[in-house]
Design goal:
Blueprint: H1 15-25, E1 50-52, E2 56-57, E3 61-66, H2 72-85, E4 101-105, H3 110-124, H4 128-131, E5 135-139, E6 148-151, E7 154-157, H5 159-172, E8 176-180, H6 193-210, E9 213-219, H7 238-242, E10 245-251, H8 254-259, H9 265-269, E11 271-274, E12 278-279, E13 288-296, E14 308-314, H10 326-338, E15 341-342, H11 352-359, H12 367-379, E16 383-389, E17 395-401, H13 422-425
Parallel strand pairs: 3-9, 3-10, 4-5, 4-8, 8-9
Antiparallel strand pairs: 1-2, 6-7, 10-11, 10-12, 11-13, 13-14, 15-17, 16-17
Helix pairs in contact: 2-3, 5-6, 10-11
C-alpha cells in the first residue's frame, strides 16, 4: 500500500477547494462532534503501565540512541532478561513483575544471539526456570523483518508485516518488543522525515493496539566527539519525536571520571551513562551508570579457546566522601589556615597534599578522588580560591578557608577510622 496520507499544502489553494478537500478526506458516515468533558475523579483514573522504571511504558515507543561500540545490544539483552526474569539487573524496578520480552536482532546470527543471552545469564546467575517461557529471541538473518520499502513512487508501509508482528505479540502475550537496530527494519531513506515518521508512528500504533512497549535501537549521527543527546539520532528527527522516552547512551568522559575519582582508564572505558533524554510520560530519571563486563562461556576445547562475550550490569557511583566526616574537613581547614596551599594540582604545595594527610590518601594514586573532594568543598563554600602573592611576590591562585566549620558541630571519628596521619598530627583533638 502506497503512502496515501501525505500532508496537504493548503497555502496556495482556493478556500472552496480547501473545504472540499477536507470534506473529501473525511470517511463517509463519520460524525465529528465536540464531546463535553466528563470531569472524572482523578483517583479513579488508571495508572500508566510502566514496565521497567520510567524506561518502558505499555502502548508507547522507547528509542535507545547511541554510537557504535557503546553496548546498545548488550544493554538491550540485559533489559530483556531483566523483564523475563523479574530481576532488576540494571537497577530499574519492575512494578508489574516479570514480563514477556522479544529480542528481534536484525544484524547478528542466531548463534551470536545465543552467546549474548547465555553470557548474560551466566554473569547474572539466571537459569531457564527464572524466565519460564517469557523470553523470545530472533535473528533477522534467519527471519527477516522489513516494515517499509521505498522506490521512485514513494514509500510503502508493510502492513502485512506489522499484522504478523502484532499477531505474535498477542499470541505470546509479549509485553516488550526490542528491534535492534531500527535502521535494519526498513529500506527507506533515513533522512526522510515523512517516511521515518510513518514507520515510527506505525510502531506506536502497534504498541497501542497490542498493549506492548516497543524499543527501537538507533545509531547516532557523526558527533565529532561531543555528548549524545536525544536529538542526535541518525537521519530524520521523526523517530525522536514519535518516541515517548529517548535514552541516549554515553561513554564516561575523562571529566566525569575525574569528578568521580576514577583513575583506572580501563574502568572508565567500560562505563556507559544512560540518561533520560526525553520522558513525556514521567519526570526524567537520574542518569544510570552501566558497566560493560566480559563473561567467559567456558565453551572451548583443546583446539578452540573459549568465547568471551560482553554483558551489562548496574554500576554504582563511588562515594568520594566514603569514610570522611566534618572532622576531616575541619582538619583540612586548620591546615589551610596555617599555611599557603596552591590550587594547582601540579604544584609541590598543592592543597590536595593537605587533604591526603588528613584523609589517609595518596596525593598521587588518589589524585582524582582528592580533586573531586576539593571540587565539592569549593562548591559548597567550605574552601575558596583567591589570587595571593607567593614567596616571590607573584600572584598565584591559593586555596583559603571559606565558611569555617563550627568545632561544636564536628563529628569526631574513631581512631582507626581517621586518616593515616590525621590522628597523629591532630594533637589535642579527640579522634
Amino acid at each position: 500500500m502506497r503512502n496515501a496520507t501525505a500532508p496537504m499544502d493548503f497555502a496556495d489553494m482556493d478556500p472552496d477547494d480547501v473545504a472540499s478537500r477536507i470534506a473529501g478526506a473525511t470517511p463517509t458516515g463519520t460524525a465529528i462532534r465536540a464531546t463535553p468533558y466528563r470531569w472524572p475523579d482523578p483517583r479513579s483514573l488508571p495508572t500508566r503501565q510502566w514496565l521497567l522504571g520510567h524506561w518502558l511504558l505499555r502502548g508507547e515507543v522507547t528509542a535507545i540512541i547511541a554510537p557504535g561500540g557503546t553496548g546498545k545490544s548488550t544493554i538491550g539483552t540485559a533489559l530483556a532478561l531483566s523483564l523475563a526474569s523479574g530481576q532488576p539487573l540494571l537497577g530499574k524496578p519492575l512494578p508489574r513483575g516479570p514480563q514477556s520480552a522479544w529480542i528481534y536482532n536484525l544484524e547478528d546470527s542466531q548463534d551470536e544471539l545465543d552467546r549474548q543471552v547465555s553470557a548474560a545469564c551466566l554473569f547474572h546467575g539466571i537459569v531457564p526456570d527464572d524466565c519460564r517461557n517469557r523470553l523470545c529471541v530472533d535473528s533477522g538473518l534467519v527471519q527477516p523483518l522489513c516494515t517499509a520499502t521505498e522506490d521512485r513512487d514513494g514509500f510503502a508501509i508493510a502492513e502485512g508485516v506489522f499484522a504478523q508482528v502484532a499477531a505474535t505479540v498477542r499470541d505470546r502475550a509479549i509485553s516488550v518488543v526490542i528491534v535492534d537496530p531500527f535502521v535494519s527494519s526498513h529500506t527507506v531513506r533515513e533522512s526522510s522525515n515523512e517516511a521515518i515518521d510513518a514507520i515510527a508512528k506505525r510502531w506506536k500504533r502497534l504498541a497501542q493496539e497490542t498493549g506492548c512497549a516497543v524499543v527501537l535501537v538507533h545509531h547516532t549521527k557523526k558527533l565529532g566527539g561531543r555528548e549524545v543527546t536525544a536529538e542526535d539520532g541518525r537521519g530524520a528527527v521523526a523517530l525522536r519525536d514519535a518516541a515517548r522516552v529517548v535514552l541516549p547512551l554515553n561513554a564516561m568522559s575523562q571529566v566525569e571520571a575525574e569528578e568521580l575519582g576514577i583513575t583506572d582508564p580501563a574502568l572508565r572505558r567500560s562505563l556507559v551513562r544512560v540518561a533520560t533524554g526525553k520522558a513525556n510520560r514521567a519526570p526524567p530519571d537520574a542518569a544510570t551508570w552501566i558497566k560493560l563486563e566480559s563473561q567467559c562461556l567456558d565453551n572451548g576445547d583443546g583446539s578452540e579457546p573459549a568465547d568471551y562475550v560482553g554483558v551489562a550490569c548496574l554500576w554504582e557511583k563511588p562515594d568520594v566522601f566514603h569514610g570522611l566526616s566534618t572532622w576531616h574537613l575541619y582538619q583540612v581547614q586548620l591546615r589551610v589556615a596555617a599555611g599557603q596551599w596552591r590550587d594547582n594540582a601540579q604544584a609541590k604545595d598543592w592543597v590536595g597534599h593537605a587533604v591526603a594527610q588528613v584523609a589517609g590518601l595518596s596525593a598521587d594514586k588518589d589524585k582524582a578522588r582528592i580533586k573531586a573532594i576539593l571540587k565539592t568543598w569549593k562548591r559548597n563554600g567550605a574552601l575558596k580560591v583567591e589570587n595571593l602573592p607567593d614567596k616571590n611576590g607573584d600572584e598565584r591562585p591559593f586555596v583559603v578557608v571559606g565558611d569555617p566549620v563550627d568545632p561544636a558541630q564536628v563529628s569526631y571519628p574513631h581512631p582507626e577510622k581517621c586518616g593515616a596521619e590525621s590522628a597523629e598530627s591532630a594533637a589535642g583533638d579527640p579522634c
